[in-house]
Hints:
Blueprint: H1 16-21, H2 35-47, E1 60-62, E2 66-67, H3 72-84, E3 89-94, E4 97-103, E5 111-115, H4 125-133, H5 153-170, E6 179-183, H6 192-198, E7 202-206, H7 210-218, E8 224-226, H8 229-241, E9 246-250, H9 254-264, E10 270-271, H10 291-300, H11 302-325, E11 329-330, H12 337-345, H13 356-366, E12 370-376, H14 381-394, H15 399-411, E13 419-424, H16 430-436, H17 452-465, E14 473-477, E15 485-486, H18 504-516, E16 520-525, E17 535-543, H19 547-570, H20 574-582, H21 588-591
Parallel strand pairs: 3-5, 5-16, 6-7, 6-10, 7-9, 8-9, 10-11
Antiparallel strand pairs: 1-2, 3-4, 12-13, 12-14, 14-17, 15-17, 16-17
Helix pairs in contact: 2-3, 5-6, 5-13, 9-11, 10-11, 11-12, 14-17, 17-19, 18-19, 19-20
Amino acid sequence: xxxxxxxxxxxxxxxxxxxxxxxxxxxxxxxxxxxxxxxxxxxxxxxxxxxxxxxxxxxxxxxxxxxxxxxxxxxxxxxxxxxxxxxxxxxxxxxxxxxxxxxxxxxxxxxxxxxxxxxxxxxxxxxxxxxxxxxxxxxxxxxxxxxxxxxxxxxxxxxxxxxxxxxxxxxxxxxxxxxxxxxxxxxxxxxxxxxxxxxxxxxxxxxxxxxxxxxxxxxxxxxxxxxxxxxxxxxxxxxxxxxxxxxxxxxxxxxxxxxxxxxxxxxxxxxxxxxxxxxxxxxxxxxxxxxxxxxxxxxxxxxxxxxxxxxxxxxxxxxxxxxxxxxxxxxxxxxxxxxxxxxxxxxxxxxxxxxxxxxxxxxxxxxxxxxxxxxxxxxxxxxxxxxxxxxxxxxxxxxxxxxxxxxxxxxxxxxxxxxxxxxxxxxxxxxxxxxxxxxxxxxxxxxxxxxxxxxxxxxxxxxxxxxxxxxxxxxxxxxxxxxxxxxxxxxxxxxxxxxxxxxxxxxxxxxxxxxxxxxxxxxxxxxxxxxxxxxxxxxxxxxxxxxxxxxxxxxxxxxxxxxxxxxxxxxxxxxxxxxxxxxxxxxxxxxxx
Length: 593
């Protein structure tokens, strides 16, 4: 496992056109033959915006090695293909490299992407690294390789929703006076301090890379930083006692911080973690090294690096377990650190604290709810502000959604293309009933049977058609969604029917979204938990104001959240069965009983 082959190739020097772009093109003039192709081009470049990606000069978007393209030559080739792609053609991208273009039809996807996928017997890091060294594959993470990453703003609402659910379960709906301790302020973990303070709590976050703390402070995601753990504990305790929201990034290794807290007898209210523990070589930092020293060790002795990284993870997990035993609420936030130490350090009690999905998010998945996100291709922030108004108008009964929009407008800084995230689902009944009972305004052209996601997408499409939004909007989501993932240590952990590892569901999700007419569809292996540990899919729909866009929106934003409902209904979850009955979702074996 530790012998990573030396690469026979490199990714090359950064593309001249990437240097010219430095992010997504904006405005209403396009380089491609249509807006669907243009949206793909802009979203690819948005991933590689220096304000969005972690190391765009290396094509790395987030997660240590999650790339948007396999090499700079492949990037240039993708850009050329997208500019030439006709409205009835489909481009095929295999692990970040364009490999084919075929005539299909106008309603087919413009781009199909497959990243990091290996046959089961060979589906592990060892074989992946052998192929990567030969230039045959790349790690696409989730939204990196599907050209859907929008920076830390993309994960903020999911983190907010998780902590809100935790507060509902343990603290009467609010984190006021509560201290949350965590690790990791990279591309995904960087949302944690702001999500805590949005829920009125206090956050202490460990991060070994001081530059990441500085970046979160610059963008308003974290308030302060310190090298002194005692200082962090003192300020956090004072803020909690005063009922103030507060966050501090501590420049320290997370395992060291947890042991330091235990030595001091300090027990927070909540303990979690979002370091890049899925990748023990490129993502996680071992204790005892500065970032520079660790980077040098990785280059000179990768075997030692991996062993020391896994040793640190074992201490890290033990620290979480000990803090949980001392009275804190503990959960893993999806980085597979428990799986790593159970497999590689034989820590049999590693899973004695739950993952965030079974603990807090699964009831939302049962309703087809998940991180629905959209980006303004114009680059104009006012386009997103208009969509904010629209989503509030469409769902007057959703107080949590309104609170989220207010907080996001005040506190979430745009990165790259202006974007927003809202957790919307399948439900076809609540908003219409509210309207019929006089409680709210219906959207123009409101139809019975439309899901929440479809209703909102159609409203955006109308605003584009009417010129209230300057240019088309692309709608996508995180792969962490209701029916798009098989990940036994995260999204599908502890399924009621023991179907955690069945990967038919995300494959069906991708196939169905192709049939429904999504504009980009992608299938990946590994995600945030590592090669061989997950299969997941994504999609994009471009809302350009046309009837074709409306047709695609109606279909895709029914099939996509609908997969979440049927997947959980099939597993026997009452909430999903009730949602299927309420919204008339066909579940054949159950319907025919």
